[in-house]
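Translate structure to sequence.
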């Protein structure tokens, strides 16, 4: 295939590339409006008009050549990848470089292939940082030093289990349930053995690392931009995952035989 910069890009080449690009961007956690803007920016640079439709699991793209009116359409399935702001940023930068004429279409396509092969961040560093972050949430909610240590251990164990299960391609709903269960069991030790003065804070914050925050945020963003189907789909996914982690946490509490006092008793005790 002739990949020389002077060769005109065909409607089919552009359509397949742009739809694949959009599917990857959405799969890595980008919002619909961001995906649309990036795709239209690149299509304009290629002298093409584009109609893009984003549904819950697919992207449908139709490109129109402004010179001869030829069209081509392509549908690409949105594959669920790990949320990656690194890949999202690189893909957005690619769209600007193509729009500004810094790279040709063929160079953009080669760069795209390199970007999607970007290796994930060091898993041990991620494990450490997530544990520290969740421990910090414990402190923000009033946890003492012992509670922070419990949350750090519970998060490290749960997140490591999450990494292992996702590597084994386990169902993400089962992953959330299992990780929440193990983290809550570890955190419940603060109650059972009377470690520290705020064991309830340790228990409550031990599963916060599982909260699907990005899907919730993207759901609101998509709704504000009028992408109601995608918004509802993302909200439903987030609610299901939240239900799974809540069920896992309840299972851990029941297994450890905890009888938690009502909130007003904790408030009265702290005052």
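Result:
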């Amino acid at each position: 295939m002739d990949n020389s910069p002077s060769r005109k890009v065909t409607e089919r080449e552009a359509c397949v590339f742009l739809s694949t690009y959009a599917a990857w961007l959405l799969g890595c956690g980008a919002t619909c409006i961001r995906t649309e803007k990036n795709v239209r920016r690149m299509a304009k640079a290629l002298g093409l008009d584009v109609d893009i439709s984003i549904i819950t699991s697919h992207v449908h793209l139709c490109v129109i050549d402004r010179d001869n009116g030829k069209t081509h359409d392509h549908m690409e399935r949105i594959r669920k990848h790990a949320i990656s702001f690194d890949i999202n940023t690189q893909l957005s930068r690619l769209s600007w470089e193509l729009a500004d004429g810094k790279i040709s279409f063929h160079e953009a396509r080669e760069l795209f292939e390199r970007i999607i092969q970007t290796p994930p961040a060091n898993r041990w560093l991620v494990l450490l940082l997530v544990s520290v972050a969740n421990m910090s949430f414990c402190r923000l909610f009033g946890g003492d030093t012992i509670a922070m240590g419990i949350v750090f251990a519970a998060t490290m164990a749960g997140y490591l289990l999450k990494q292992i299960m996702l590597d084994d391609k386990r169902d993400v709903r089962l992953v959330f349930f299992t990780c929440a269960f193990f983290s809550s069991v570890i955190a419940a030790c603060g109650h059972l053995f009377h470690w520290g003065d705020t064991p309830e804070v340790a228990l409550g914050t031990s599963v916060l690392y599982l909260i699907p925050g990005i899907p919730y945020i993207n759901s609101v963003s998509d709704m504000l931009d009028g992408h109601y189907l995608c918004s509802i789909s993302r909200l439903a996914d987030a609610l299901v995952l939240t239900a799974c982690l809540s069920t896992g946490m309840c299972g851990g509490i029941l297994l450890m035989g905890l009888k938690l006092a009502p909130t007003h008793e904790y408030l009265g005790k702290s005052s």
